[in-house]
Amino acid sequence: MSELQIESEIKITEKASKEIKRIMEENNIPESYGLRIGVKGGGCSGLTYTLGFDPETKEADTIIDQGGIKLFIDGKSLFYLTGTELDFSSGLNGKGFIFNNPNAVKTCGCGESFGV
User: Fold this and answer.
1) pLDDT at residue 95, as a whole number
2) b or e along 81-95 (b: 16 or more beta carbons within 10 Å of the residue's beta carbon)?
3) DSSP label at residue 80
């Protein structure tokens, strides 16, 4: 496990940060938990994003502190997510987290999957 303070690898916007903290508070998720961000095979474009709270890190995880939110990212996912910005939208087109990933060369219409 490597603990890094790398602000440039993955960024969380202020709107996303507020929403993450709100979810943690409403669901009594301890501050010691991290937000696990990852990718897995699937979706119409090849890869899908994963997002969830995790009580502990895994051996090969990179830990990034973003404004008091600990991000847990496995090595394979970090490769695909470097440079990504996690945002949150509550607009007319739906409510949810948005991955602005500069590594994605194709995305599906619903924004749930991507390809590199």
Assistant:
1) 82
2) beebebbbeeeeeee
3) H
List the one residue out of 90, 85, 89, 88 whose CA is nearest residue 104. 85
Where do the structural domains in the chain lie, given as residue ranges? Answer: 2-103
The residues that bridge with 84 in the sheet, in sequence order, are 10
Q: Quick one: pLDDT at residue 28?
A: 97
- pLDDT tops 80 at residue 55: yes
CATH number for the domain running over 2-103: 2.60.300.12
Residue for token digits 């895994």? 58
How far is the C-alpha of 33 from the C-alpha of 24, rounded, in Å?
9
Length of the chain: 116
Among 63, 62, 36, CA closest to 51 = 36
HSE, side-chain direction, 13 A CA sphere, residue 47: 19
